[in-house]
Amino acid sequence: VSYCNRFTSCKTCSLTVGCGWCDQRQTCESGLYRSPDVMPCATWFYHSCFTVGEKGGCSDGIEVVDCEHRQCNKSLSTTTVESCLRCHDVEGCFKESAGGFCKVWNEDQCPKGFIHPLYNDTTRIEKILIGHNVEYVPSDDSVLYRCPVRFSSWGATMFVYDGDLDIRIGQVLSSPQASGVMHKVEQVVTTDAYTVIVAHPATL
User: How far apart are CA 21 and CA 9, in angstroms?
Assistant: First the structure.
C-alpha cells in the first residue's frame, strides 16, 4: 500500500520523495520523475506544481508561469532581460501533454527537475544582459579585423573596426568576429573611416 495517498493536494504530494500528483485524477500516487508506478497519467507533476503558458485542462491547484504577461512584459517595472531569458528557459522544460491538458515537465529536456538553458538558441546572445562596460560587436555588424601585429613590449593586440565605434579606454570589446574577441581596451584612435583599438585579453 502506497503512503502517497495520504496527501490530498499537489503541493503536499510533490514535497514527498517517491510521490507525484496526477492532476486529472486528483490523486497523489507513488512514482518517479516520468510517471506513476501503476496507471499512466498525462498530467503528472512530480517536481513541482506549476505549468507554463495556458492553464486550460489543469486544476486550480496547478499554478501558471506566464512569461508573456509577467516576466517578459516590458510594461512592468520588475521585468528585465535576465528575468525574461530565465523564464523562457523554464518554458523550454515543458512539453504538450496528451489529451489537451496543460503542459507538463519534459524529463528528456530537463532531467530530474533541473532547468537546462537553451544554449542551442542562436539568438540567445541578443537576449543576454551585457555589462555596461562591454561593447559588443555582433557577427552581422561592420567588419572587425584582428591585425597580425603584436606590441611585444606589453603583449597587446590591434583591432580595426570598419566604421565609427563608440568605445572608450577601460571598456571590454567583445565579438564573435576576428576568431573571437574579449579584450580590455587600452588605446582608441579614430579616423574618417576606421576605429583602431589596442587591447589586452580581458581577465575575469
Answer: 8
- At 85, the pLDDT band (50, 70, 90 cuts) reads confident
User: Rounded CA gap, 36 and 50, in Å?
Assistant: 18
pTM of the model: 0.60
Q: Where are the beta strands (DSSP E) in 6-110?
A: 19-22, 27-30, 44-45, 50-52, 63-65, 94-95, 104-105
CB 171 within 8 A of CB 138: no
The per-residue pLDDT for range 110-125, each reduced to its tens digit, is 999 999 877 666 566 6
Q: Provide the b/e sequence for 15-28 (b: ≥16 CB within 10 Å).
A: eeeebbbbbeeebb
Dihedral sign (CA 11, 56, 82, 136): positive
Q: Are 29 and 64 in contact (CB under 8 A)?
A: no
Q: Give CA–CA dist 165/173, Å, rounded.
A: 10
Alpha carbon dihedral 66, 68, 72, 78, in 10-degree steps, equals -50
